[in-house]
Amino acid sequence: MKNTVDYSQLLRAHDFLAEKQAPLIREQHLQAIWLDQNMLKDLKTSDGLKVEVYSPGIWNRQAGPDFLAAHLRIGKQDLRGDVEIHLHEEGWTQHGHHKDPRYEKVILHLVLEKGRNPNPLYGEFHTAYLAPHLTVSLQSIPSLIDLDLYPQKRFVKSGDCSEHLFLKYSKKETDALLLSAALWRLSKKRNLLLNQNIPEQFALPMGLAMTLGSPKNARIFGKIFQDLYDKPFWSEDKLLAQALGSCGFFTSKYLERWKESSYYRKLSLLWPKINMEYRCYQLDLSGIRPIHHPIRRLAYLCHLIKDIQAPLLQEKILKTWRDYWNTISTQHLLERLHDEIPSYKHHYWNTHVHFEQKEKKLSSLGSNIKNEILVNAIFPFILHDIRKRSSKEEMEIFCELYSKLPSSKSSKWAYLGQRFFSNSRALENLETEQGALQIHRDFCSQFETSCFGCPFIKRYEFFMKNNAFMVFE
Length: 473
Hints:
This protein is an alpha/beta fold. It folds into two domains: 18-149, no CATH class; 172-403, no CATH class. Helices cover 47% and strands 7% of the residues. The chain is built from 19 helices and six strands. Strands 1, 2, 3, 4, 5 and 6 form a six-stranded mixed sheet that branches. Helix 15 runs antiparallel to helix 16 (392-403). The longest helix is centred in the middle third of the chain and has 24 residues, at 171-194. The radius of gyration is 27 Å and the shape is globular. The protein starts with 6 loop residues before the first helix and ends in an 8-residue tail after the last helix.
């Protein structure tokens, strides 16, 4: 056949061109090299200062510097901060980093090679050129680094606690530690909800509202709930118009996008008529699947505010726990608690995720979000209720129930598995994942990622010797 190409010829053509052109290196290759540190030797800054890497930092997949919370020694300075990586030195200004406050904590700017016309430095950071310090040739880098393995499977080097604690002690012992941390986390969640500027009977619904926001927008959903919880006499449309308007969903961008929706137009006309001082909120919409779009979650929040049973939800759930914890299996108990989480039907939201085309029939809440609601809003109050009775048997049933919730399998879950277990063992359920999250918050986040000065291992070993891990503390 004419005008056809044998694929092997394409490969040979690529090999021929590769000899005449610079290798096809992407910034992600440099990021992988920085993360692993096994292709670098004797790294120095542009002005000759030795760079010692205690921790490369956490590979950042959101907006901002490429690596966060790195720990370096540059010359005689011990530095903690962020690292930004570019193929070309000019990338710093071309990408507008010199005007972006997110880059104010950068301590090192890594560049493949020195540019012909390097821009003047902006900010108080060092620059280092990678090419002179590579232990492999530039041409070999694309074939040596499989970018599909990054950063999903490797976020940062494992912590000291991986070798000296989590892989040293038995699974039973480390599970007890993670359980203890998970229960502590539940207590902290309850205190957080009770310390909001709302009546106590709305604390659990507040936790439900914050869970609807997902980790990215939990705080904003909580603020919106605070704005509206005392307005159940408003219509659902009025509540939703207020929520959407405060989140900027009636700007020209969305008015044009959803102009074909009669329901959206109705809400947009209602918004200017609401005589209420309101705050403006900026939701983070990056990486959100359509089914989890915050508009649909805001609609649920408005249903919750209209629900006259919402202030009674805490007592209703505690009664379900007290009545059934020792009479049915934990699986059936879990199902009953799921059933206590309000589900709402709506002629529009049963088939829409926002204001575009119809979808298939949708449930108001899926099982995954219900599990998150259990952990963030319901379990904190059940745990407190159990502790008032000091029942060991009841506590054991609660912990067994908690262990039945599956882990999130999120990027944070993968990071924690690498951080604490070097990926040799996954965090098996939501209980162990929440325990790991709390340990990370209380220790890792305070000591960046290098573990220098972290007291966690010594404290754990002290408690192990003194048998101090108890669920009733």
